[in-house]
């Protein structure tokens, strides 16, 4: 089995209303349970907004630490899920289930050394 990263693409702005967020949370928990039952679960987690980020960068012989996101954008990485799947088509099926659960776009990417070629 190969491993794939499912990236949740979160828009900048206010979160959904509490009742909408509660439904998304239920759907996401059901998705995670389905992954576990299929032995496709590796890891998943949500991320705080980019405003909480700290960037650590090597520059010359020094390491610089700066507040804020590395890049400014209208969308950001809101969470990740790592799944096991036999191939890209199966990973895309998990991505389809993830987008239905989260109501957000999902980017599906294989890890290095995890492709068919």
What does this structure look like?
The protein has 117 residues and is an alpha+beta fold. It is 30% helix and 38% strand. Strand 3 and strand 4 (62-67) form a beta hairpin. Helix 1 packs antiparallel against helix 2 (88-102). The longest helix is centred in the N-terminal third of the chain and has 20 residues, at 18-37. The two termini are 14 Å apart. The model has no long low-confidence stretch (mean pLDDT 94).
Properties at a glance:
117 residues; single chain; four-stranded antiparallel sheet; alpha+beta
User: What is the string of SSEs from the N terminus onward?
Assistant: EHEEEEHE
In quaternary terms, these chains amount to: single chain
Low-confidence stretches: none
Q: Which of globular, elongated, flat, extended, rod-shaped describes the shape?
A: flat
> What is the helix tally?
2
Classify the helix fraction into a percent range: 25-40%
Q: Quick one: how many beta strands?
A: 6
The fraction of residues in strands falls at 35-45%
> Largest sheet, if any?
4 strands, antiparallel
Structural class assignment = alpha+beta
* Spatial separation of the terminal alpha carbons: 14 Å
Give the strand order, joined by hyphens, for the main sheet: 2-5-1-6
User: How large, in whole angstroms, is the Cα Rg?
Assistant: 16 Å
Average per-residue pLDDT, rounded, comes to 94
């Amino acid at each position: 089995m190969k491993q794939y990263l499912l990236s949740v693409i979160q828009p900048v702005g206010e979160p959904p209303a509490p009742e909408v967020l509660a439904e998304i949370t239920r759907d996401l928990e059901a998705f995670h349970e389905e992954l576990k039952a299929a032995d496709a679960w590796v890891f998943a987690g949500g991320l705080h907004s980019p405003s909480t980020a700290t960037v650590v960068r090597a520059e010359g012989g020094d390491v610089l630490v700066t507040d804020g996101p590395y890049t400014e954008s209208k969308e950001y990485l809101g969470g990740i899920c790592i799944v096991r799947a036999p191939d890209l088509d199966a990973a895309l099926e998990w991505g389809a289930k993830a987008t239905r659960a989260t109501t957000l776009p999902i980017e599906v990417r294989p890890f290095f050394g995890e492709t068919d070629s």
